Amino acid sequence: MSIDILVSLIKPLLVLGIVLTNTIILIWLERKVVAGMQSRVGPDRAGPFGILQTLADAIKLLLKEQILPLRADKAMYLLAPIIALVPSFLIFMIIPLGPGFDLTIGGETRFINLVGADINVGVLFFLAISSLAVYSVVLAGWSSGSKYPLLGGVRASAQMISYEAAMGLSLVPVILYSGSMSMSKIVESQSGNLSSTIPVIDSIVRFIPNWNVFPQFLAFGIFFVASIAEVNRAPFDLVEAEQELVGGFHTEYSGFRFAMFFLAEYINMFNMCAITATFFLGGWLGPTFPGIFPPLLSAMMPTIWLGLKTVGLLFVYFWIRATLPRLRYDQLMELGWKRLIPISLIWLLVSAIVLGIRDFGLPWS
Amino acid sequence: MTEILLFAIPALLIILGALIVVFAKNPVHNAMGLVLTLTSLAIVYITLNATFVAMVQMLVYAGAVMTLFLFVIMMIGVDKPEQSRKEIKGQTFLISGTLILLVSIIVYIGLENGLNWDLIFPESENAIEGTPSLLASSMFTSWVFPFEVISILLIVATTSALALAYEFKKNESND
């Protein structure tokens, strides 16, 4: 009993540590990568390669004065940054980081799975919690009592509702294909290599891992686009379009409350990439090289694989940000409602028919 | 002890949210009170081992419906609190009557059960009832007729809403 309580106390603390450390490195990495793509140097003063720049920024933001606008709605104004930060931590709790291991303490052996909470409807939990993130943006925009944040907030609510629908619909074929809504079962269903009943195709395809991204390539595309829109990154960052809305919903925020929004944005980005890797790129699956690598490193390889996949996807995020210009607002809504949602519905139909034929045979045979 | 806490905290939050919905002057505060109520209700569902229902509650009500509420409130731009106060005839009498009725019902149920206020939580084998596959199989076999009737009702509601909005627009352009 006491070990269980200890484990459930350690897990959230560990998640907090991982998430905060990640964010510090992530912000530095984004500035460096984007700087490299735009032929600039990027941060290079604080620490080696400027890696302590984020820390310096955080200290600066902590020491700044926190301004409360005169026309602000006080309760909602103070609540909004907290609502922004909480869902981002909760989402990380359901990402499986590894296969789990047996731990023996004082003669008692326990199986410890490397998930914060392995709930059987993990996919729905992810969608439910990420839909709560809208409130922070909407409330921050409305409660500031100023016109630019309000416009940013209204835009955000429209954008996030539209793309949430596409994101949810693109995940349904993945759930059908994996046969479960649990995150760890989705990862396990992607183990092994692809196979085909036709020998010629089988000989080519058998070297490719059985990741969902290959059979569900269209769902992956839709989910990737929708996830960028969901975390309000370029080219879908109309919520905080600098040229039109000054700073969007967080214009009136300063000091540590602004830092909370900033932190939440980067944690959400990291979560989204880790979730994409879990759903489509096999999560923690990958060769662990037992016997070649030392045992401890071999045991840590699954987590390292998940990290590498996540960083790869994050690099694509940075790449897109450095390359693509921002969409116009009507283009954004048109892409969401007229392209992504119909395509994902058709893809859901096609996947359901293919899976039905695979499991039950052709209807006339 | 843990069970009572797991029930009491969300239950108190539900009541707090409901009170905010009724008494707060600002429409955005009302909406956020409703969000608090719906989210706490989801926590109660989780303690009853109905994880699926809890997640759907969060996704549909707290996520989608309330965001649309907030969106509409912000679009209309209700920045100032409601001015008009309408009083129903004899409202003090009605409210106190309802309250007395409610309290007497609770007391009656309590006395019937021999003042046994213990909370009953379902055992973990009941957890399987919340899984989506079982829910789907019962919905599409034994409850398929009510399910289809509800879907027809929803389509009728959507079309009538569209028809009403379209009629309004046509009249506007004629002026």
Please, could you describe this protein's structure?
With 365 residues, chain A is mostly helical. Chain A has one domain. Chain A has helices spanning 2-37, 53-63, 74-92, 122-143, 147-178, 183-188, 199-205, 217-230, 242-245, 255-280, 295-323, 329-360; strands at 101-105, 108-112. In chain A, strands 1-2 form a two-stranded antiparallel ribbon. In chain A, strand 1 and strand 2 form a beta hairpin. The relative contact order of chain A is 0.13. Chain B is an all-alpha fold and 175 residues long. Chain B folds into 2 domains: 2-80 and 90-142, NADH-ubiquinone/plastoquinone oxidoreductase chain 6, subunit NuoJ (Four Helix Bundle (Hemerythrin (Met), subunit A), Up-down Bundle), CATH 1.20.120.1200; 143-175. The model of chain B has no long low-confidence stretch (mean pLDDT 79). Chains A and B meet through helix 3, helix 4 and helix 5 of A and helix 2 and helix 3 of B.
Query: From the coordinates shown, what is the CATH architecture of the largest domain in chain B?
Result: Up-down Bundle
CATH H level of the largest domain in chain B: which superfamily? NADH-ubiquinone/plastoquinone oxidoreductase chain 6, subunit NuoJ
Q: Return the domain count of chain B.
A: 2
Q: How far apart are the first and last residues' alpha carbons of chain A, in Å?
A: 55 Å
Supply the CATH class of the largest domain in chain B: Mainly Alpha
Largest β sheet strand count, sense and barrel closure of chain A: 2 strands, antiparallel
Integer average pLDDT of chain B: 79
Question: In which order are the strands of the major sheet of chain A placed?
Answer: 1-2
Structural class designation of chain A: mainly alpha
Give the number of DSSP strands of chain B: 0
